[in-house]
């Protein structure tokens, strides 16, 4: 990750804690010295070759639809892998007896073994806490991982990209075998990591400047530590605790970590994780929708209290991002649960809908083209149409 990008993110985090506001603005010109030049992140980094294995990739909006005959469509926002793409077989990445690493209700850690299959299906989340930037990581049962990072700056506009700038990273890789450090801590390293786009490159799509970068949460990683549920919160590194909301352990009602935590020691970045109960596909999709509704409600309140047009543009972009993520999440659930013939038909419908959406966004913004409100109008129209589309897509799960 480039210095300008990393510093911008750290400033955003400080803004949350200290009340400082940092506004970043620059162009989208190719070859700027401040752009990301790539970071090896302590591992073997390489870029996935486009068209590998004969796949014809098409990016439609923010959904990347692969039109190979297997029907393996995946979302372009890095949702692929949610719910576990790894084998999850017993013994994959196993050290110890293979029992569950979940803590008991009493808060005591019942055992000390860990395997990657224990966290398959969980979402590791790293963010500023304000919706401005975030990173999602999925660890699979065979020790592979996938994830994506994004940071939007709707105020960073220029010719051809009135909707602002999106810093984006999509990646896959493999971890080394985990090794136990103490009763509730395991460690491993990144064996390899591959990025979908070369860090430091950029392109303009759909009125947005995409600047491709490395992972923030896994950047410059040497040793990664995984904390088991039941770990003593007060005993965790202060740098990790601050990322997951435990600023002062003495003021906490709970003393034991209630989730699996991941800590990048070298970069001092920390992930929390969410545990999902077994649900049918329809319930999983609605859980995502409800989460998006809650996030939008909070952002709408912020939008109403915004003092400047720049703030409104930024928040409206975040609202659009919430529903764009929800769309990708529901799309992945559809892909995993619907038959190939249904998905092929639905993919054609999705292409047609995206074309219609883009035209509608252009029409909505026509009256304010070139003005300070253009980005907000575009974002809010795109958010509305995307939200409506999510409610349409989820119905396919109720009848299948």
Quick gist of this model?
This protein is α+β, with helices and mostly antiparallel strands.
How would you characterize this protein structure?
Strand 7 (133-139) and strand 8 (144-153) form a beta hairpin. The protein has helices at residues 3-18, 238-243, 281-305, 309-337, 340-365, 374-398, and strands at 44-47, 57-60, 63-66, 94-95, 114-115, 123-127, 133-139, 144-153, 165-175, 179-182, 185-188, 190-195, 202-205, 208-212, 224-227, 261-264, 269-274. Helix 5 (340-365) packs antiparallel against helix 6 (374-398). The chain contains 6 helices and 17 strands. The strands form 3 sheets. Strands 1, 6, 7, 8, 9, 10, 11, 12, 13, 14, 15, 16 and 17 form a 13-stranded mixed beta sheet that branches. A two-stranded antiparallel ribbon has the order 2-3. By secondary structure, the protein is an alpha+beta fold. The protein is 32% helix and 22% strand.
Essential attributes:
400 residues; alpha+beta; 13-stranded mixed β-sheet; two-stranded antiparallel sheet; 17 strands
* Portion in helices: 25-40%
Low-confidence stretches: 10-27, 29-111
Q: What share of residues are in beta strands?
A: 15-25%
Largest sheet: 13 strands, mixed
- Total of DSSP H or I helical runs spanning 4+ residues: 6
Briefly note the structural class of the backbone.
Answer: alpha+beta
Number of strands: 17
């Amino acid at each position: 990750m480039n210095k300008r990008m990393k510093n911008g993110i750290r400033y955003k985090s400080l803004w949350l804690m200290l009340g400082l506001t940092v506004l970043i603005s620059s162009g989208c010109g190719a070859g700027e010295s401040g752009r990301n030049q790539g970071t090896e992140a302590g591992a073997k980094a390489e870029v996935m070759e486009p068209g590998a294995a004969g796949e014809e990739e098409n990016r439609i909006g923010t959904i990347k639809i692969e039109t190979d005959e297997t029907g393996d469509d995946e979302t372009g926002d890095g949702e692929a892998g949610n719910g576990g793409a790894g084998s999850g077989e017993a013994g994959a990445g196993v050290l110890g007896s293979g029992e569950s690493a979940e803590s008991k209700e009493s808060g005591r850690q019942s055992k000390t073994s860990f395997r990657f299959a224990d966290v398959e299906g969980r979402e590791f989340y790293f963010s500023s806490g304000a919706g401005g930037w975030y990173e999602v990581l999925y660890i699979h049962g065979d020790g592979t991982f996938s994830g994506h990072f994004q940071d939007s700056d709707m105020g960073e506009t220029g010719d051809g990209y009135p909707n602002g700038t999106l810093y984006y990273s999509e990646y896959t890789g493999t971890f080394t075998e985990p090794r136990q450090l103490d009763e509730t801590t395991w460690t491993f390293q990144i064996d390899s990591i591959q990025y979908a786009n070369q860090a430091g490159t950029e392109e303009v799509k759909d009125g947005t400047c995409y600047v491709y970068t490395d992972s923030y949460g896994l950047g410059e990683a040497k040793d990664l530590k995984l904390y088991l549920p039941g770990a003593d919160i007060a005993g965790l590194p202060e740098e990790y605790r601050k990322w997951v909301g435990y600023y002062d352990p003495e003021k906490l009602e709970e003393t034991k970590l209630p989730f699996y935590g991941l800590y990048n020691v070298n970069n001092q970045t920390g992930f929390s994780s969410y545990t999902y109960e077994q649900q049918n596909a329809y319930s999983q999709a609605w859980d995502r929708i409800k989460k998006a509704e809650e996030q939008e409600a909070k952002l709408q309140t912020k939008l109403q209290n915004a003092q400047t047009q720049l703030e409104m543009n930024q928040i409206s972009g975040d609202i659009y991002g919430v529903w764009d993520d929800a769309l990708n999440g529901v799309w992945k659930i559809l892909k995993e649960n619907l038959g190939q013939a249904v998905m092929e038909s639905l993919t054609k419908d999705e292409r047609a809908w995206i074309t219609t959406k883009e035209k509608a966004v252009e029409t909505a913004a026509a009256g304010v083209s070139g003005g300070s409100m253009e980005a907000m109008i575009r974002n809010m129209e795109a958010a509305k149409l995307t939200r409506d589309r999510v409610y349409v897509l989820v119905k396919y799960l109720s009848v299948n």
